[in-house]
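[Meeting: bench + compute handoff]

Bench side (C.D.) handed over the final construct sequence. Compute side (W.E.) agreed to return the predicted structure before the next meeting so the bench team could plan truncations. Sequence as handed over:
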Amino acid sequence: SESAKTLNIMKKNLFFLVVIIFVTNTAFLQTFPDSLQEKLSEKTPKEQIFYLLNISNNSIKSNPTASLTLAKLANSIAVSNNDKNNEVKSAFIISKSARQVGKASEAIDYINKTITILSSANQKQYLAQAYNELGLLYKETAKYNDASVAFSKSISLFQELGDKKAEYLVLGNLGDVYNKSRQFKQAIETFQKAKKLAEELADKKEIAISLNLLGVAYANYGNTAEAINQLKAAKDIATSIGNTVLANQIQANLDNLQQNLAVKGKSEFEKEQEKEKEQYISSLQSEYQNIKQLAAKSFEEIEKLKIEDQVKELRIKAIQGEFEKQKLENEMKEQNLK
């Protein structure tokens, strides 16, 4: 009847602004039933949010675009109703969905607002998760400095909470950021910390994973020998626990490392080693210049001196000998290059 239609229209008017956002989304219409509008029109704002977030959360992997749309809708309802709890929940789903569809930049503002809410409420567990999520968003948008800051804050909070498993996982994220930003020494230090935590957790799979990541970091840094050691150790553990997939991945890293050796130029590690040697020789030369006027005594003469004088004379002799050795090595290297 006409009166029934009018009543139904009036009933739906309250939710018109909410519904209009997603009825125009083609992906949504193709994925979910038309009856969703009616279902939402019969619910309170809190029930609407719960319903939308349930669908959104279950669709993150299967249909991340629709998941993102629904989570944003739920977030807007939560904000309108000053529902901080659901504003936080929807923001986490927005972040996960946005990363799935390559729209991480859209979620950064949502997570920053979530961090403000959680900081005010002193919710450290969720705050640590939020900083990790923020780090993942920054990593996806190649803002590596911002990502490392966010991950570091997350790690500090998980350390404070004594949550070693979560700390281990975020250390992996931080190490990945250092690798991507070519800060290989920091990546090595980070994965070493992750390995230590995996050992404390007695989780062999995670130990193998952290050793694998550590090996890759050493390879990127240019310390091939250490990279091979770490990768072989990782493979041994993966094989011992019967994780064939992981063992094969590690073997692939070993194979790639061997293939790259023939064509690779000087690595950062090798350059640093050369620089350290140059600095050592320069320092040695400076000391040598200070004592070269002093005639080094024979060992027989040194034995007759007091202990403190013996130490002094032996040092003079050692410096002179070491400098002459380094000088000879450099001359031979230059001769071979000609």
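W.E. noted at the follow-up: The two ends are 102 Å apart (CA to CA). C.D. will use this when planning the next construct.
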